[in-house]
Amino acid sequence: MITYEYPFNERIRTLLRLEDLFDKLDFFCAQSHPHCHHTALLTLFEILEITSRSDLKGELLQELERHRQSLLALRNNPQVAEDRLAAVLQDVDQAFAALNASTGKAGQQLRDNEWLTSIRSRAGIPGGTCEFDLPSYHAWLMRDAGQRNADLQSWVKPLTQFSVAMAIVLRLLRETAHGSRSAAAPPAPSSRCSAAARSRCCRCALAPSTTRSRKSARTSTCCGSGFPPPTATSSRSRSIATCRSN
C-alpha cells in the first residue's frame, strides 16, 4: 500500500516534516561512508532551520498535555485495557518531563557552535563545502567512521527529547484516527471545507497500480479530504483515516 498523509494545520505539518527528517538523520548517521555523514549533517541543519521558526517545545508540551487529558478520561472504562493505558500514560509523562526540563529552543547548543555554523553557512551554496572552502570540515570527514559517528551522536543528543515527544504525539494522533473505506469520487465543495475544519490530518492508503501513472494515483487519494477532485472518477477503493481533534 502507498500511504499519503496531509496535515490540516501548520503544527501537524511541522511535526510530519520533522519526522521525515529525523528518519533520514537516523539512517545516514548509522552509515560509515563520509558522504553519508555529510548528508546526515545537512539533514541536521534542515532540522535546525525548521525548529528555529516556531516554539516547538511549547507546542509539543501542549500536544502531550492534550493527549494526557484525553487518556486520563479513559480510566475506569471497561472497554479500555488498563495496563496498556497505563503504559501509554507513562510514555507521555516521561516525554513531557524530559522536554520540560530542557532549556532554550530546540538545537540552541548547535546554533552556538561556531564550527558547525561555519559549515551551515557554506552548505547553502552549491558546492560550497569543498575541501578548499572548508579544510577543517574536510579533515573531519577523513577521520575514522567511529569518531565521526560519535561526533554526530553528540550533536543529535540535544534534540533527542524533541524527537521522542514528536514521535509520541504523531503515534497517538494516528492510533486515534477514524478510518473508513471509500471509492474515489469528486467531493461536494462544502464537505471539503468541513472535513478540514474538524480534522487535524488525513491519511490515505492506496494500492499500487501498474495501469495508472504515479501522478494520477497520487491525485486519486485526495478525494473527500479537502483536495481538488481528479479529472476522472475511479472505482478503485482505498482506506482513509482522519485524525480529529479531541
Task: Chart the SSEs and their pairings.
Layout (H helix, E strand, L loop, with lengths): L1 E6 L2 H20 L4 H18 L4 H17 L9 H20 L6 H4 L2 H10 L11 H7 L3 H12 L3 H16 L2 E6 L5 H10 E8 L7 H7 L16 E8 L2
Antiparallel strand pairs: 1-3, 2-4, 3-4
Task: Describe the structure in your own words.
This protein has helices at residues 10-29, 34-51, 56-72, 82-101, 108-111, 114-123, 135-141, 145-156, 160-175, 189-198, 214-220; strands at 2-7, 178-183, 199-206, 237-244. Helix content is 57%, strand content 11%. It has 246 residues and is α+β, with helices and mostly antiparallel strands.
Briefly summarize what is shown:
With 246 residues, the protein is of the alpha+beta class. The protein contains eleven helices and four strands; from the N terminus they run βαααααααααβαβαβ.
**Largest β-sheet summary:** 4 strands, antiparallel
Q: Give the helix tally.
A: 11
Question: Could you report the average pLDDT, rounded to the nearest whole number?
Answer: 80
What level of helicity do the residues show?
55-70%
Biggest sheet strand order reads: 1-3-4-2
Decide which structural class fits the backbone.
alpha+beta
> What value does the Rg take, in angstroms?
22 Å
Low-confidence stretches: 193-197, 213-240
- In sequence order, what are the helices and strands, one letter per element? EHHHHHHHHHEHEHE
Count every beta strand, where a strand is a DSSP E run of 2 or more residues: 4
Characterize the quaternary organization of these chains.
single chain
SS strand fraction: 5-15%
The separation of the N and C termini measures 28 Å
Envelope shape: globular
